[in-house]
Amino acid sequence: MGKPANPRALADNEARAVARNLRVSPQKLNLVAQLIRGKKVSRALADLEFSRKRIAVDVRKTLQSAIANAENNHDLDIDDLVVAEAFVGKGLVMKRFHARARGRGTRIEKPFANLTIVVRETPATA
């Protein structure tokens, strides 16, 4: 006799993957997330493969994880998947100090970001 399970937050035709503590600023990560929003997953993977941004590798891994979740956990057809949402959140910020002239110091902030990708199965249009 345990407590009842939480209801599923996503619709039945959706799956999600989350990457936490990516070592990049949320602003830079959002530029790459913008690149894949609303696209079919095959096209989004191709765009990330040839992107010159360093963080595109981690975004691609997260997208592949969302696709695998959709296929294995929710029995969705991967040929009909579209990137429904790709949103970025702030993570922690490491604070460091950089030595400057006259015995002073300047604060350096090293931000982290979180990435959530939601894929949705859309019926193929004939």
From TrEMBL:
GO terms for biological process: translation. Gene3D superfamilies: Ribosomal protein L22/L17 (3.90.470.10). Coiled coil: none annotated. CDD domains: Ribosomal_L22. Signal peptide: none annotated. GO terms for molecular function: rRNA binding; structural constituent of ribosome. GO terms for cellular component: cytosolic large ribosomal subunit. InterPro entries: Ribosomal_uL22, Ribosomal_uL22_bac/chlpt-type, Ribosomal_uL22_bac/org-type, Ribosomal_uL22_CS, Ribosomal_uL22_sf. PROSITE patterns: RIBOSOMAL_L22. PANTHER family: CHLOROPLAST 50S RIBOSOMAL PROTEIN L22-RELATED (PTHR13501), LARGE RIBOSOMAL SUBUNIT PROTEIN UL22M (PTHR13501:SF8). This is Large ribosomal subunit protein uL22. It comes from Camelimonas lactis.
